[in-house]
Amino acid sequence: MRVVVDRDRCEGNAICVKTAPEVFALDDDEYAMVTADPVPVEQETLAERAIAECPRTALSQRLSG
Known about the structure:
This protein is an alpha+beta fold. It is about 25% helix and about 20% strand. It is built from 2 helices and 4 strands; from the N terminus they run βαββαβ. The strands form 2 sheets. The chain has a two-stranded antiparallel ribbon with strand order 1-4. The protein is globular, with a radius of gyration of 10 Å.
């Protein structure tokens, strides 16, 4: 699984970082960024939860490849 961050929608709330800290971090501009690409299998459930909980729907899942 791969995750994409839409920087135009991201507000830097860091909910994704709190939910899946091994997958997300904030960059120098305080926008979410993916630090694990592809997402490790053992982190997929947390990444999916972070996608669902993003208040600005700035995260989306895309097929690997």
